[in-house]
């Protein structure tokens, strides 16, 4: 629903803006432009005011050898009350021209075509001298030389001795809006001649043809092909919604060839707004915006899914490998069995044997013995290789299990106290007990062994 609103609003805005550009009449080029053959043009619509005029302006370089220019600007009037015009097009094949139709209300009111291409003639014949350049009745110049700058003062000047009457100048934008150049007060500059200053309110990048004429007809001074530039310091102060441009709508003239292959441009009339293209552009923009929003949505969702994925814990003590057995305890947690010495073995002690000792009152004291057992846990279980080895005076248990493992000394303390001490006799006092700290006399210093 939001997308529909976004798409409808620009369409309504653009449609309301372009409604004033719709003209009540236009023209069509009925016949294919061909070298030295008749070109037929008809007026369409009933909003024009007779009489009508057709202006044909050369466009682009000459296709003839040595760039010989044989084309003149042709200013042709329709007959009184007529809406159809047929005249000889004296242009060589592969050359181009722009057509502008005007009526009694002003110049260019019927629209301007894009550059149309002249095709080869159906039969033999020529209407021009391909070896001689044509020249205008008078010439004009532009200051700054050969450039039109957007919203910058431009001086158009000429030699006043070569004109008849007061010169006039036209601005032709191929496929766009053509206009009469407003003429200010005339001034004489010694190094230039007679002229006036004009501030072009034409947008930068627009192709603009300046054509001059006098009482001998429009275009009698020739034309100048320019591309409007923005200048070093772009200035937009003179521009507004009504400023001439080359993109108000489809070009005038109907359908006519625009290149040497005969490919045609289909115009819907010079003044009609290109609503279909505008609507298509708006819809395309909305679709592109929707695609961008969806792409951002899926990208964000994918990022959130990656962040929510928990990392697997790493067990530094139990690292499974390909050779391990699943479901078994790791080797760090294998149980170590406690091995008791055999009862029949005589265990060596520090005193040579286990002897029962008593104190001065006849109470048995704890005995200390030393034995040896394996100092390394048996990781494979306990069996023939897992029995404890003790030092005895007899023979071993008789099990043959290969080389014995290294042993370490283990102290076994067995408490043999017989309960509480005997009560003292009635006529004897309880002896005083004096506790003395250990003397550490039994500690033997180990003599360091020298390396062999």
Write up this protein.
The protein has 452 residues and is α+β, with helices and mostly antiparallel strands. Among the domains are: 122 residues, Immunoglobulins (Immunoglobulin-like); 114 residues, Immunoglobulin-like (Sandwich), CATH 2.60.40. It is 11% helix and 22% strand. It has two helices and 21 strands. It has a four-stranded antiparallel beta sheet with strand order 4-3-6-7, with no helix packed on it. Strand 10 and strand 11 form a beta hairpin. Helix 1 packs antiparallel against helix 2. The N terminus is likely disordered. Keywords: Membrane, Signal, Transmembrane, Transmembrane helix.
Chain-wise SSE layout:
Blueprint: H1 2-18, E1 25-29, E2 38-45, E3 53-59, E4 74-77, E5 84-88, E6 96-102, E7 116-117, E8 140-143, E9 154-158, E10 168-172, E11 179-180, E12 187-189, E13 193-198, E14 207-213, E15 223-227, E16 255-257, E17 264-266, H2 275-308, E18 357-358, E19 364-365, E20 367-374, E21 407-414
Antiparallel strand pairs: 1-2, 2-5, 3-4, 3-6, 6-7, 8-9, 9-13, 10-11, 10-14, 12-13, 14-15, 16-17, 18-19, 20-21
